[in-house]
Amino acid sequence: MKDFKSYSKQKEQEGIPQDVAEAAKQLSDVFAGKGEADVLRAIYREAEKGRKAGTLQDSDLDNFFAAVAPMLDAPKRKKLEQVIAKLKKM
After folding, report:
1. 66: pLDDT strictly greater than 70
2. Which domain of life is it from (predicted)?
3. pTM value > 0.70
4. Contact 4, 61 (CB under 8 A)
5. What is the CA radius of gyration of the chain?
6. What's the CA gap between 72 and 19, in Å, rounded?
7. Confidence (pLDDT) at 71
8. Cβ 4 vs Cβ 47: under 8 Å
9. CA 54, CA 4: separation in Å to the nearest integer?
């Protein structure tokens, strides 16, 4: 998984920005065949690493959510929102 800073929020011209589409494909490739628990562990692991290094800000988490959420259905988007809220409390 890339670090959270790689999910920078960009203005959309038409559809999904190219870097977001590429990030989505990379995430899809990395987590193909893995369960939700594996994905959540990877997100928590990366967030913990960023927080300890002092390189992960709440705005980075917001950008990550903004980039990934449109690709999720409503229940998964809600779960990601809850995960982001927990990460912000770290």
Report:
1. yes
2. Bacteria
3. no
4. yes
5. 13
6. 17
7. 77
8. yes
9. 12
Q: Which two tokens stand for residue 61?
A: 């988490």
Question: Could you tell me the residue ranges of all domains in the chain?
Answer: 57-90
What is d(CA 22, CA 76) in angstroms, rounded to the nearest whole number?
20
- Read off the tokens for 35: 């369960």
Contact 1, 30 (CB under 8 A): yes
HEC letters along the chain? CCCHHHCCCCCCCCCCCHHHHHHHHHHHHHHCCCCHHHHHHHHHHHHHHHHHHCCCCHHHHHHHHHHHHHHCCHHHHHHHHHHHHHHHCC
